[in-house]
Write a structure and sequence with these properties.
Oligomer: single chain
Number of helices: 11
Radius of gyration: 18 Å
Order of helices and strands: HHHHHHHHHEEHH
Strand order of the largest sheet: 1-2
Strand content: under 5%
Largest sheet: 2 strands, antiparallel
Mean pLDDT: 77
Shape: globular
């Protein structure tokens, strides 16, 4: 059994390492693993249930999330909280919505940037997005978690680099059928998922919509400065699913 698990893990690692976007898949795996092991998933018996689980979730979010009121003036741990917050999510809806969009838009963006640049871009823009929100809400004591600011940056860069790309999206109200849309049409669904994540988790951490705006502007601006207009790919669709024809 252990041997089989080790073999499977090894194959998975080699597959990710040999893929065209290894860091996108690594980030998705890390976020999913951290969520499943944490109290927000409700899958770890060590955190208890009922009121005990709720208290554990609040303490967890405050420990690993960004608290604007504590960020400036702060010890080193607080200064690093925008990085740790990128890998913590408040609910299943929050996690799955973020990971879906990271997968859809992250692969092509990483292929264009390269794995090292993409990783620094993702973490840097995510950090600055949460920092921007904290700077505008210095008196807030609410914890903020999630990769939304970083993923918003990926969306901004993607729309600059691939303005006419069509991407495959899974829409829940259409029974998760894989449909292809222009990237700019998918953005309202991203915003709707963020709103839904916030409304479904009233006891959880806050959703920083300003961080989404900051992240998107940072991503678009970075791609514009870094690659310029001549680097834009006007008709580069995302890879089709197996058995699906390119438009």
């Amino acid at each position: 059994m252990i041997s089989d698990a080790t073999t499977t893990a090894g194959r998975t690692f080699r597959g990710v390492r040999g893929s065209s976007a290894p860091m996108t898949y690594t980030l998705i795996a890390l976020c999913c693993l951290i969520f499943v092991l944490g109290p927000a998933s409700g899958l770890t018996p060590a955190y208890g249930s009922g009121k005990a689980l709720t208290l554990a979730q609040r303490a967890y979010f405050r420990h690993w999330g960004v608290i604007p009121a504590d960020l400036f003036g702060a010890p080193v741990r607080e200064a690093l909280s925008p990085v740790t917050a990128l890998f913590v999510h408040g609910s299943w809806v929050h996690l799955l919505g973020n990971m879906l969009f990271l997968f859809v838009f992250g692969v092509m963006t990483e292929e264009r940037m390269g794995r090292v640049e993409f990783t620094l871009f993702y973490v840097g823009c995510g950090y600055l997005a949460l920092l921007g929100y904290a700077a505008a809400n210095t008196g807030s004591g609410q914890s903020l978690v999630g990769a939304s600011g970083a993923i918003s940056a990926v969306l901004g860069a993607f729309l600059f680099l691939f303005p006419r790309a069509r991407v495959t999206s899974l829409l829940p109200f259409l029974f998760f059928l894989p449909l292809r849309f222009p990237a700019w049409i998918v953005l309202p669904f991203w915003a709707a998922l963020q709103w839904l994540a916030a409304s479904r988790a009233p006891e959880g951490p806050g959703v920083a919509y300003l961080a989404h705006v900051v992240g998107f502007c940072l991503g678009f601006g970075y791609a514009w400065v870094r690659y310029g207009r001549k680097a834009r790919v006007r008709a580069a669709p995302a890879p089709a699913l197996k058995g699906e024809k390119q438009p």
